[in-house]
Write a structure and sequence with these properties.
Elements (H helix, E strand, L loop, with lengths): L1 H21 L19 E5 L2 H9 L2 H7 L2 H6 L3 H17 L5 H6 L5 E7 L4 E7 L2 H5 L2 H4 L5 E5 L2 E7 L6 E7 L2 E5 L2 H11 L11 H9 L6 E6 H4 L3 H6 L5 H4 L2 E10 L3 E10 L9 H7 L9 E6 L3 H13 L46 H8 L3 E12 L6 E11 L5 H16 L21 E5 L2 E5 L2 H13 L8 E5 L1 H15 L16 H12 L3 E10 L3 E10 L1
Length: 558
């Protein structure tokens, strides 16, 4: 009986394969980018926008975010208010509110959104959607209040709000639904759908080159024309990364996002406007990343950093672990007006013809700088992790730095340089800055170092140093990269919230006035962290050929 079932299964499989390969292969539908007129500065495409929208509406992430402090703060931001104003103007022009009902009505399968002007929100939206489904929606039923026009024999409808001058236009043709806020763009798209000659965004050099360098499209694709985006004041104002100067070296970028059973993945490709010669050693990052403990909350590794970059990291994490810059104030300084008195009789003994006595420590780090300047550094690793202090109240941060050089390190020279640095910072007569047999500093300031050939490890305590050194024997080398980083969100979020709660002053008294603005770290940012509680960790790996930068970002899910 079992053999008969097996034979039947195999026979049925062969019949199915024969039927599949016997079918005439259907030609895939044309790419939507070929139907979008040239000129956008941002292009988004979804394989199935309707499915993505349905998943988002049913997700716990959406529910949690709408109830979070992060959303409440965003809903009072200038950006949100500007978008609300544009939404109101579009509703007045279109005659229907641009709410979720409208979005659901026009959310078809493969869809594309091209933005031509950020400030004016000039866009074109195309989706593959059956005419019967669209005809059942509210937008189609309002077409009587629109002006009917034609492009390449295809009807479309347009309406202009006399107050705001906002334009709303739509069309339905050949199982496509189009919405636009510019008539010329909509008419151009209809001409391309009709097969007329015309220039599409797919033929523009920046778009074509980015698409050819990228992998197969993900569930969601975004293509950016940086040369145009950088000129937009709205992009410069609202781009959350605030790295416009750094983006100046790129002409275009493309990003593909996709979902799997246990992860979310984003693959990016950035095209340099001018090619540079690679001078970095990506294999060195694979070697130094072995020292990142699996228990660390965050690690970052760079290939071939300069000596100045290596020193700056040492200064921030080891030598002077404190905020290096203050938040830039956007408020004019207050002038305190007194009674006109500018001094008193005690100032008469102050000499104004002699320079003040210099009491500074000079350049405490001269020896460290000299040591790094004379060493070729192949890779640099930063490791950070939080831990609950023994008192059970406060949260501390441990930091470690590893440097891979092109030659063996001189351990004695390193200890002498660090001794000089801390002696000038902390003490006189080198009290508390001597080293024990375990290469640990014997004072109140914790520090532990170790050298293993070309590898130097400096950490703020022995446990972290030993955990990093264990990676040399316990962990294999990772893949080469110019930059690599991992952040373990699920591990660090509880300590982050606990730490920020103490910093943000939770003892502030409640008032009967309007609800206060949530504390930035323990309220706003912590709520966003809780919304993303389903993410276990995030990692990024960057490869750089000199002309093309490829980034792979992976979000591991719990």
């Amino acid at each position: 009986m079992k053999r008969a079932v097996t034979i039947a299964f195999v026979f049925g499989s062969l019949v199915l394969l024969a039927w599949v390969f016997a079918q005439v292969p259907s030609s895939p539908p044309p790419a939507l980018a070929k139907l979008v007129p040239q000129g956008p500065l941002l292009y988004l495409e979804a394989k199935d926008f309707g499915a993505l929208l349905s998943d988002w509406n049913a997700s716990d992430v959406k529910r949690l975010w709408l109830r979070s402090d992060n959303f409440q703060v965003f809903s009072r931001s200038r950006l949100f208010l500007k978008l609300t104003q544009a939404q109101t103007e579009f509703a007045s022009a279109a005659g229907v509110p641009p709410d979720m009902d409208l979005v659901a009505n026009v959310a078809g399968g493969q869809s594309a959104l091209a933005i031509y002007d950020i400030g004016q929100l000039e866009f074109l939206y195309i989706t593959r959607l059956g005419s019967e489904r669209f005809a059942a929606g509210g937008l189609w039923k309002t077409r009587g209040s629109y002006q009917p026009r034609q492009s390449s024999g295809i009807d479309y409808y347009i309406k202009t709000d006399p107050a705001s001058k906002r334009v709303a236009a739509f069309a339905a043709a050949k199982d496509y639904v189009l919405l636009a806020t510019r008539e010329d763009v909509l008419a151009g798209a209809l001409a391309l759908i009709a097969g007329q000659a015309g220039s599409s965004v797919a033929g523009e050099q920046w778009f074509d080159k980015a698409a050819r360098e990228a992998k197969a499209p993900g569930e969601l694709r975004m293509v950016m024309n940086f040369q145009k985006l950088r000129k937009s004041p709205h992009f410069r104002s609202y781009w959350i990364q605030q790295n416009i100067t750094e983006l100046g070296q790129y002409s275009a970028a493309i990003s593909d996002a996709a979902r799997a059973s246990a992860e979310l993945r984003e693959d990016r490709v950035l095209l340099r406007a001018t090619e540079i010669a690679p001078v970095w050693n990506e294999a060195a990052v694979a070697e130094v990343s072995r020292l990142a403990p699996v228990s660390a909350g965050l690690y970052r590794a760079w290939a071939t950093p300069s000596s100045a970059q290596a020193f700056e990291l040492l200064r921030r994490k080891i030598l002077e672990p404190r905020p290096s810059t203050q938040i830039a104030s956007k408020i004019a300084p207050v002038v305190a007006l007194g009674g006109g008195a500018v001094g008193d009789e005690t100032d008469l003994e102050t000499r104004i013809d002699e320079p003040p006595l210099e009491t500074g420590r000079g350049d405490a780090d001269a020896d460290i700088r000299k040591l790094l300047d004379g060493t070729g550094i192949q890779a640099l690793l930063e490791v950070d992790t939080t831990r609950v202090q023994p008192d059970g109240v406060f949260i501390g941060t441990d930091s470690g730095v590893a440097l891979l050089a092109d030659a063996d390190w001189d351990g004695a020279a390193i200890r002498n340089a660090l001794t000089t640095s801390f002696a000038k910072r902390l003490t006189e007569d080198q009290i508390g800055v001597r080293w024990n047999s375990e290469s640990e500093m014997d004072g109140l300031h914790q520090l532990a170092i170790a050298t293993r050939g070309r590898m130097l490890v400096i950490a703020t305590n022995r446990d972290l140093r030993d955990a990093m050194l264990a990676g040399l024997t316990n962990q294999p080398a990772s893949s080469p990269a110019r930059y690599a980083a991992v952040y373990r969100h699920s591990k660090e979020l509880p300590n982050f919230v606990r730490m920020m709660r103490l910093i943000d002053n939770p003892l502030a008294k409640e008032t009967n006035q309007d609800p206060p603005e949530p504390a930035f770290f323990s309220g706003n940012m912590a709520s966003l962290g809780r919304v993303l509680a389903g993410i276990d960790s995030e990692s990024i790996v960057v490869h750089d050929t000199g002309s093309i930068v490829k980034q792979s970002v992976v979000y591991k899910l719990k």
